[in-house]
């Protein structure tokens, strides 16, 4: 495996770059340079064979000046404190960029969920939730799915949390998590929201660049919730998926892969590997594939200098959080490749999380069309803000997106000051 950089220091670097571009006050930059709370828990879980195993879990609460802490929970064997800190900070900028009244947080447990049965996953999730205790809450810190977790995970978190609060409060506690199943109070359109948001950004980019999506080609790294839905939706617009890869391997078909059949294959086997109508390729060949659009939708720090030189696309649309290291972004921009940043591109998820939370708070259920319409409007509006801000100040899109978010946070701090 390639050595990975440190996501937290990269996020810090991007913060400093944007802070300089908009003359952010030193005071606010100082506050934002570290998360408010770093919670680390160790908890024992009984395995199916009756043995006990100790797990390490994190919840990093980066900032809550604009609203409750908000962000996903990741289950992955490579979870580290600095990774979760970086991801938590990215959530603060993401919410602020879209003017969603939330702060930023992220959680994680360091283990490989693929190696555990459903009942073990349930016990791990419930013990983690219990260990976090009142560190989460519907008006305080609201988790959601991320890499390695899904709607079922969120239902377990919700149920555990509900059962430790007072009897009469139980139903008001549903919104302690978002990204739940529909039956548990989840929102229509939440499962597809991140992928849909990615495609809204690509659509706006294509309009600005007078680029025809119908008949173009794209490649996706990662075929989980984000990559799979983005691919299906983009294919509906007439774009052709020519290469895809995940933790097991990479495949290609220059004639185009059927996104629905591929999704069925992944549901059955757990990976894109071995899909019939495709040819296996190496990771290097994957990055060098002829495709107009490249969507990293796997883990962070995947596009380093090496990959940036290989990519042949016109645009990189970051479905994943933190997929591109700064040196790689410079290479891409120098080569004339547009880079649409994560906090803009993958924000459809937290946007619809906010809609879910609002529905729960008001005891409402919105129609799918209503959710989709709202999501589209907000994604396109924010995309326009970033594009215009970038053009006005001669900034790249990432710096512009960070700067818009930072501006909102700075206003809140300058009005409120710090207590006492
Ligand atoms: N984990 C997702 C993200 O990174 C969703 C967060 C949320 O919905 O709170 O944006």
What does this structure look like?
The structure is a single chain. The model has no long low-confidence stretch (mean pLDDT 97). This protein has a seven-stranded mixed beta sheet. A five-stranded mixed beta sheet has the order 1-2-4-3-5. It has 15 helices and twelve strands. It is globular and about 55 Å long. The longest helix has 26 residues, at 368-393. The protein has 420 residues and is an alpha/beta fold. It folds into two domains: 35-176, Rossmann fold, CATH 3.40.50; 193-345, Rossmann fold (3-Layer(aba) Sandwich), CATH 3.40.50.720. Helix content is 47%, strand content 18%. The site of glutamic acid has 12 residues, from β3 and α13.
Q: Please give the CATH class of the largest domain.
A: Alpha Beta
Helix-strand sequence: HHEEEHEHEHHEHEEHEHEHEHEHHHH
What is the third-level CATH name, the topology of the largest domain? Rossmann fold
DSSP E strands, number? 12
Largest sheet strand order? 9-8-7-6-10-11-12
**Share of helix, binned:** 40-55%
Overall pLDDT metric = 97
The gross shape turns out to be globular
Number of domains: 2
**CATH homologous superfamily designation of the largest domain:** NAD(P)-binding Rossmann-like Domain
- Bound ligands, named by name, code or SMILES: glutamic acid
Q: What is the subunit organization of this protein?
A: single chain
- Radius of gyration using CA atoms only: 21 Å
